[in-house]
């Protein structure tokens, strides 16, 4: 026994075991527990009597939940496409020996250091119809200028898109820029010799060659979309009405404000499934060779 | 060196294209700077100037009154102590959370890099998935686990949550770094009879300063900017700054004074911005490393 202990102290096994234990209990144990709760009648008080998938049926007949999911899709698609395009453009330009590159990069990246709460509040003030941009234009003499997206139920979701593009573009720029810097000079030389126009070179040669880099950008942005909570809280609180509700907010509201444990757990499990389905292709390509 | 590497990068030859390029970059810069500059400039205005409603106008008579109110007497619901207690709480939460999650992450990362087993990749997969699990799927059980330990809504509780939720991330970053460290270093230490922990502490940690700084900066930014975990797990006495800030802004009782709210927002953003500006290169390297392999 002593000898065994002595041998262990030279190996990483114990550390790995402890770490893996913590991950298993806190992450995977919690998920199982949440899944169990979602199969029960629990409301204010947890109940451990299983009732099958009733909570899921309730969830998908809940209008607010359906709106939340729809919002997440609209928000997610626009945000991911917008951030990718904007970030890729900035990365291309930053890769072209521009003056003051580091100044530009500092400016494009600083939003990443700002919390989503402050981001949301700032944009809420800028886009406020009375005191923000619209009021400003009107008081400057353009009486008919209208930019009331923040308080317009059909448009409010787009203000969230603007604010999160503002927050995340720098991230995409840095990652794609790192990829561009890794492109072989011979490739560029060949492209120049062939006389391929630049935009085609990027779209058909450079970016297709950087597929793993772009995939990790998409994965990161996607997990931001699914987790999106802070920004909604700071900017619209889900309103006007329920126009900007999101699944993450739905789950937290039903856990803590409306105290309906079963329904909230079902919502959380659906969120988890959505993220796993979205991420499967990525994990498959990352880990296929290794396991 | 980067110049030499880039020699073959095509450059827009035409003047017009070059001009367009800079026009685009400058407009983008304006887009990124706009919200921050606007709230800073408006937080320096006295209330009468705010009421005139010109968001873009620079303050005519700049004053720090709004900052002082935001700092020590703005109301968050029942209390009127400004963001000052929030700042202290955030520091109290962030410092140990960052230190512990970084150091433990380094130890785990090193252990995983050293662990020669066919199951190592499976563990990596499970840990990587852990990064992407929505918090909502773990919140309630975490509340229960902490309650059973008597730590729910306590200072130790919120630190523990930040450490545990941060571990997969820090571990992965360190593991990716240590996989690239030559094995000879650890082997030499082991030949001398140094135990695993001893090797980690006296041989590995001293050569890890760069990655330690990178991970600590990322963790600090994440923990300082956290809202949800603080709201749920910190308890009323330890609410972090982000939560105090939203309470001040959403406080219906106090008179509406946008300049105070904006000052409070700026004060909340200052610590992470300072870290970002002081550590630019590390910060960039960190997100690139964390993102590409994470």
Automatic annotation (TrEMBL), chain A:
Domain of life: Bacteria
Pfam families for this protein: BPD_transp_1
Lineage: Bacteria, Pseudomonadati, Pseudomonadota, Alphaproteobacteria, Hyphomicrobiales
Family: Belongs to the binding-protein-dependent transport system permease family.
GO process annotations (BP): transmembrane transport
A GO cellular component entry from the record: plasma membrane
Keyword Aminoacyl-tRNA synthetase attached: no
Residues in ABC transmembrane type-1 domain copies: 69-282
Localization per Swiss-Prot or TrEMBL: Cell membrane
Entry protein name: Sugar ABC transporter permease
Main location: membrane
Organism of this sequence: Mesorhizobium kowhaii
Topology with respect to the bilayer: Multi-pass membrane protein
Keywords: Cell membrane, Membrane, Transmembrane, Transmembrane helix, Transport
InterPro entries (alphabetical): ABC_transporter_permease, MetI-like, MetI-like_sf
Residue ranges crossing the lipid bilayer per the database entry: 12-36, 65-94, 106-126, 156-180, 201-222, 263-284
Automatic annotation (TrEMBL), chain B:
Keywords from the UniProt entry: Membrane, Transmembrane, Transmembrane helix, Transport
Major location (coarse): membrane
Pfam families on file: BPD_transp_1
GO (cellular component) term, any one: plasma membrane
CDD domains: TM_PBP2
Listed GO biological process terms: transmembrane transport
Residue span(s) of domain ABC transmembrane type-1: 87-279
Transmembrane segments: 21-40, 93-113, 120-143, 155-178, 199-220, 260-278
Subcellular location: Cell membrane
Topology of the protein relative to the lipid bilayer: Multi-pass membrane protein
Superkingdom, taxonomy of origin: Bacteria
PANTHER family: ABC TRANSPORTER PERMEASE PROTEIN (PTHR43879), GLUCOSE IMPORT SYSTEM PERMEASE PROTEIN GLCU (PTHR43879:SF1)
Family indicated by similarity: Belongs to the binding-protein-dependent transport system permease family.
Protein name, UniProt field: Sugar ABC transporter permease
Species this chain originates from: Mesorhizobium kowhaii
């Amino acid at each position: 026994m002593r000898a065994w202990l002595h041998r262990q102290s030279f190996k990483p096994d114990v550390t790995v075991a402890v770490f893996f234990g913590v991950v298993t209990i806190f992450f995977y144990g919690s998920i199982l527990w949440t899944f169990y709760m979602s199969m029960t009648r629990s409301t204010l008080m947890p109940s451990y009597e299983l009732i099958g998938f009733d909570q899921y049926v309730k969830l998908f007949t809940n209008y607010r939940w359906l709106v939340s999911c729809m919002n997440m899709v609209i928000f997610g698609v626009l945000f991911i496409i917008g951030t990718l395009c904007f970030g890729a453009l900035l990365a291309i330009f930053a890769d072209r020996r521009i003056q003051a590159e580091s100044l530009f990069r500092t400016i494009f990246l600083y939003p990443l250091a700002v919390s989503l709460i402050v981001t949301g509040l700032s944009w809420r003030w800028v886009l406020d119809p009375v005191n923000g941009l619209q009021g400003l234009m009107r008081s400057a003499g353009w009486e008919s200028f209208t930019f009331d997206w923040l308080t317009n139920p059909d448009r409010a979701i787009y203000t969230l898109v603007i604010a999160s593009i503002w927050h995340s573009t720098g991230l995409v720029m840095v990652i794609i820029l790192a990829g561009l810097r890794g492109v072989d000079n011979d490739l560029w030389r060949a492209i120049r010799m062939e006389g391929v126009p630049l935009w085609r070179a990027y779209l058909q040669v450079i970016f297709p060659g950087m597929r793993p880099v772009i995939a990790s950008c998409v994965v990161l942005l996607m997990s931001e979309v699914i987790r999106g909570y802070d920004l909604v809280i700071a900017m619209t609180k889900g309103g006007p009405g329920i126009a900007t509700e999101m699944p993450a907010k739905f789950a937290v509201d039903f856990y803590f404000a409306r105290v309906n444990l079963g329904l909230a757990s079902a919502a959380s499990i659906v969120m988890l499934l959505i993220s796993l389905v979205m991420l499967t292709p990525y994990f498959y390509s990352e880990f296929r060779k290794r396991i | 060196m980067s110049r030499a590497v880039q020699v073959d990068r095509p450059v827009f030859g035409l003047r017009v294209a070059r001009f367009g390029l800079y026009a685009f970059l400058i407009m983008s810069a304006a887009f990124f700077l706009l919200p921050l500059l606007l709230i800073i400039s408006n937080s320096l205005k006295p209330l009468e100037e705010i009421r005139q409603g010109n968001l873009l106008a620079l303050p005519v008579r700049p004053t720090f009154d709004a900052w002082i109110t935001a700092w020590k007497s703005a109301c968050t619901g029942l209390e009127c102590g400004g963001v000052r207690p929030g700042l202290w709480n955030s520091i109290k939460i962030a410092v140990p959370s960052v230190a512990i999650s970084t150091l433990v992450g380094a130890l785990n990362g090193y252990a995983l890099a050293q662990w020669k087993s066919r199951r190592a990749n499976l563990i990596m997969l499970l840990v990587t998935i852990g990064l992407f699990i929505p918090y909502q799927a773990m919140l309630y059980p975490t509340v229960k686990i902490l309650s059973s330990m008597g730590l729910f809504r306590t200072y130790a509780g919120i630190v523990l949550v930040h450490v545990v939720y941060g571990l997969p991330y820090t571990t992965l970053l360190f593991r990716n770094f240590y996989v690239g460290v030559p094995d000879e270093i650890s082997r030499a230490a082991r030949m001398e009879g140094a135990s695993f922990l001893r090797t980690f502490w006296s041989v590995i940690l001293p050569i890890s300063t760069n990655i330690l700084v990178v991970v600590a900066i990322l963790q600090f930014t994440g923990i300082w900017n956290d809202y949800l975990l603080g709201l749920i797990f910190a308890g009323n006495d330890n609410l972090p700054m982000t939560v105090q800030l939203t309470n001040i802004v959403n406080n219906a009782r106090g008179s509406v004074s946008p300049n105070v709210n904006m000052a409070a927002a700026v004060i909340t953003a200052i610590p992470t911005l300072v870290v970002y500006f002081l550590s630019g290169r590390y910060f960039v390297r960190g997100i690139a490393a964390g993102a590409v392999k994470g």
